[in-house]
Amino acid sequence: MMAVNHVVEGIPVAASQLDPESAEWLRVLGRGDQEREAALARLHEMLLRIAQREVQRRGPRLRISGPELEDLAYQAAADALMAITAKLGQFRGESRFTTWAYRFVILEVSHKVGRHFWRFPDVPLDAEDWDRLPDRFGFEPAQESEWRDLLAALRRAVDTELSPRQREAFVALVMNGVPLDALAVRLGSNRNAIYKMMFDARRKLRASLVANGYLTHHTSGRP
Amino acid sequence: MNDWTELDRFLRTDPRDVGCAEAMGVLHVYVDLVATGAPADQRYPGVAAHLRACGPCGEDFEALLEAVRDAAD
Fold it and tell me: Which of A6, A25, A139, B23 allows an S-S link to A97, with CB 3.0 to 4.6 Å?
């Protein structure tokens, strides 16, 4: 009979399918004694180290530093640990346990950074300044005679092709540089929904520019 | 020659793109494949397409990959 680790609330994961380190994590976290407490403390330490590095990396965007940044890292690590223990039964051994666990803290940091963005509400959500777009898309001032019509066509497409919600997202993300996670928080939505809405918006805008001869099907330098 | 590369890159969409939820759902699997040198983009082309196009998910991918590589050092 195949050896099985019975994990918390869980779907059993076949121990024989796991690498030794992941199997050991599941074994100790599935217990209810001091060994589990020690494992949780070790895992928290690992998560905190990752959270600290990530908030440091993303800190300049938040315009916070020092103790506040450290608090954010501690909150992310604590929330990630809580999510990991609650979802231990969902670990199916498709990756190493630590990779699965680290994902939680990375996503926690992203979410908290998005929420933190609005602590300084001087970033306009809906201010429309079309003069920012040339710089946003790397248009050279010396070539203005060439891109002026393209920009006007883009603006027409934004006005005529996008839904009000798509237009709102376009203005916030593209013109005002609001991070996608922060916009999701502001709109009471989530990253996936905002991305999909913008995916459709981008497709519409590109189709319009292609149809009107401003871009071709093969314009991109993308591989 | 006109250079609308940035605009075109922003507007271009890949029909294989799976979106954030699905990409983040398998991010740990994808990262382990990348970390071990396996062709993750061939096994998960829709995830690879998404990570190229989505800034926040791409950043999370890079962060997780770095965490895994640091732990292995």
Answer: A25
Cross-strand partners of A13: A5
pTM of full prediction above 0.95: no
| pLDDT, tens digit, 9 for 90 and up, residues A164-188 | 999 999 999 999 889 999 999 999 9
CB-CB neighbors (< 8 A) of B5 in chain A = 138, 219-221
Domains and CATH numbers, chain A: 4-119 (no CATH), 130-211 (1.10.10.10)
- Do the Cβ atoms of B11 and A209 come within 8 Å? yes
Residue B66 lies in a domain: yes
Query: Cβ contacts (< 8 Å) between A190 and chain B: which residues?
Result: 20
Selected for mutation to probe chain B from A42, A91, A192, A203 (highest B CB count within 10 Å) is A192
Closest partner CB to A99 (pick from B24, B31, B57): B31
Inside any domain, residue B57? yes
Choose, out of B4, B30, B68, the residue to mutate when testing the contact with A (most A CBs < 10 Å): B4
The count of domains in chain B is: 1
What's the CA gap between A59 and B69, in Å, rounded?
22
The pLDDT of A31-42, averaged and rounded, is 89
What torsion do the CA atoms of A198, A200, A206, A210 make, to the nearest 10 degrees?
-170
Q: Is residue B26 part of a domain?
A: yes
Predicted confidence (pLDDT) per residue in A83-131, tens digit? 999 999 999 999 999 999 999 999 999 999 988 888 776 776 667 888 8
Which chain B residues touch A196 with a CB distance below 8 Å? 19
* More confident call, A203 vs A10: A203
CB-CB contact of A68 with B3 (8 Å) = no
